[in-house]
Amino acid sequence: MTHPDQPPAMSGATHDYVTVTVGEALFGLPIARVHDVFKPASVTPVPLAPPEVVGLLNLRGRVVTALCLRRRLGLAPSTSGESGMAVGLEQGGETFGLIVDGVGEVLRLTRDSFEPVPPNLDARWRRLALGVHRLDTKLLVVLHVDALLAFEPAAQAA
């Protein structure tokens, strides 16, 4: 059995992605990993959290860690002033709300349009992306959800 984040292994196989945008970039999240799409409201900041963690929010009675994809990817802050959308993801029993600029459609893509991440890109980028699908007018970067939600342990206070 293949991991739900992995692109299809054989030619002709399909894989479904929920598309999200950050700025002009188009990203794909494996649909098997997406539990909710929602408008984040009332995010409570968390002191000493990593910079990509914007806080905690209440999603239908569950406390959810709000994670900014823009910050996680090291991109500049949005200038639109809009709060964006969130995609509910789960890892290791914890729920995350991945804050994005927008959520698009679900795309069913085949292995034929898939390319691996170019080896000359920064190692941090290669760790967060599984590869790229060539679409008619742009590229869809497939995100590695487990790597995206993995954080290095915080340094212990002395």
From TrEMBL:
InterPro entries: CheW, CheW-like_dom_sf, CheW-lke_dom. Residues 14-154 form the CheW-like domain. This is Purine-binding chemotaxis protein CheW. It comes from Methylobacterium goesingense.
